[in-house]
Specification:
This is SGNH/GDSL hydrolase family protein. By secondary structure, the protein is α/β, with parallel strands linked by helices. It has helices at residues 3-26, 101-104, 114-121, 139-153, 190-199, 230-236, 239-246, 257-265, 272-284, 305-308, 330-340, 349-357, 372-386; strands spanning 57-62, 66-73, 93-99, 127-133, 157-163, 213-214, 288-294, 344-347. It has one domain (37-183, 210-216, 251-386): Rossmann fold, CATH 3.40.50.
């Protein structure tokens, strides 16, 4: 072999190695190829599929509360958290925090979530916390996600944070099996892997992606709940609210939400089968399960009703008090069901009610979600409740 040919081959080899290094730095991928937030969006149990959320940035705002838009930086599995490894860190307890938009931290900064509040108190860094909050999901998603996440991440603790609207009278769908995970082949050239991502319709795992999508649809989007029915908005909302919804700057699903909330709080929950599944799942995997209850803001104070009336102009009464006992029975139901299944139960109602009674408003006025200080308070309280739990 001539020197010229050897040098040519060496140059080509160096070029290929350099290309691979650059591609791996530019296009990072997770350990698992088929674990993604999209697996748990409502509708998947009916066979529907959704685009992957991994490696993407999303925004949520409420123009009537603030002009600031909160950015959700989703990791390589589509969750609002740091990057995860399946292998547990040595010397730490691993805890999964599972829930809906309150767990994810809607209307707060990335470092103002419940997880962040927990870590504020964890001064000795005893816990690794994984934030598996997903906005817009419910019990069926929690069942499936808990089963898969326990199998994948082998936690010591799982904290399932239930928001008030998670307790419905619908029969839950119990998972028949857990996700059979598939790992990426570390030795596959990254160029080939990127091609596969494109072919599968997955977001390209670009490390330097600054594009942001909005969680809130505008009137021109077919996912807008009142698409083609602007007359509904005219009938039920004031002009300021209506225009903000149409532009995708205020949550359009809030229309008459207070009435749906009232009806839901009066229903008898149907969670016995779900909790029985959780008990068997956690016992089998030697995991401690903690159940938390986060009340809707109208369950703890009447202050916010003045704002919800603006989204409910036609059917809402002049006064509506959801702080009375008949609308706060779900907490007792959860406490009893948790005791039967030997789960730790944390009721955040009194904590939040005390703050609200002192005019420390933890929720936004127009948006139903908490401010950052509210999530941090819940995280602080959660730490105090679980710090002595032994797996």
């Amino acid at each position: 072999m001539s020197v010229k040919l050897k040098n040519g081959l060496l140059f080509l080899a160096v070029l290929l190695v350099l290309q691979e290094v650059i591609l791996r730095l530019t296009f990072p991928i997770p350990e698992l190829s088929n674990f993604d937030r999209a697996n748990y969006i409502p509708g998947t149990e009916k066979g529907l599929t959704f685009p992957f959320y991994r490696n993407s940035k999303w925004i949520w705002g409420s123009e009537l509360d603030t002009n600031y838009k909160f950015v959700h930086e989703l990791n390589r599995y589509g969750f609002r958290d740091e990057e995860w490894k399946t292998e547990k860190p040595s010397g730490k307890k691993r805890m999964l925090v599972i829930g809906d938009s309150f767990t994810e931290g809607i209307m707060a900064e990335q470092d103002q979530t419940i997880k962040s509040g927990f870590k504020q108190k964890d001064s000795e860094d005893r816990y690794e916390i994984l934030n598996l909050g997903i906005m817009g999901v419910g019990m069926n998603s929690y069942l499936k996600l808990t089963a898969d996440a326990i199998s994948i991440f082998k936690p010591d603790l799982v904290c399932l944070l239930l928001y008030s609207n998670d307790l419905t009278d619908k029969k839950p769908i119990i998972p028949e099996n857990k996700l059979m995970t598939v790992k990426y082949n570390y030795f596959t050239p990254r160029l080939i892997e990127v091609y596969r991502q494109i072919k599968n319709g997955s977001p390209i795992p670009f490390r330097f992606d600054w594009k942001k999508k909005s969680f809130l649809p505008a009137m021109t989007d077919k996912s807008f709940p009142w698409y083609g029915r602007e007359n509904v908005l005219l009938e039920h909302t004031i002009k300021e609210v209506r225009n903000s919804m149409i532009e995708g700057k205020t949550n359009p699903f809030k229309l008459n939400q207070i009435l749906r909330e009232r009806a839901g709080l009066l229903k008898q929950p149907n969670l016995e089968e779900a909790f029985d599944y959780f008990r068997k799942l956690t016992e089998k995997n030697n995991v401690k399960l903690v159940i938390g209850y986060i009340p809707a803001r109208h369950q703890v104070t009447n202050y916010y009703y003045q704002f919800d009336q603006l989204f409910c102009q036609k059917d809402c009464p002049e006064q509506l008090d959801l702080t009375v006992s008949q609308y706060n029975q779900h907490q007792n139901y959860l406490e009893n069901l948790s005791a039967i299944n030997d789960f730790e139960f944390i009721n955040f109602t009194s904590l939040i009610k005390t703050e609200e009674s002192n005019n420390h408003h933890l929720y936004w006025d127009y948006d139903d979600h908490m401010k950052g200080k509210g999530y941090l308070l819940l995280g602080n309280h959660l730490y105090e409740k679980v710090k002595n739990i032994q797996p």
